Amino acid sequence: MITVARITTETATIALAVFAGRTVHRDEISTMITQQYAFANKRTGVSSYCKVFDAIERAGATYRYTGPNYTGDCLYTFPAMDLDADTVARLRARLVAA
Known about the structure:
By secondary structure, the protein is mainly α. It contains four helices and three strands, in the order H-E-H-H-E-E-H. The chain starts with a helix and ends with a helix.
């Protein structure tokens, strides 16, 4: 049985690889988190999302809001990673399989 800590780590790793060098909407990341938890037959709660977003931010991703005072859309910018095409394809395939 897969642990929640492992799901968090793997989801953050996949997000960092798949979205490397890109700016994406928070909803895209939330959808991916939901898929990864469903793939592991676990339910998501508020803490599930918080743990993954915290792990992503610790790894170097930054976020900003498009409006003043935390209004507008929340966009995450991921650091660029030097990954070969095969690694990215495998990670994307795993994400889609979820």
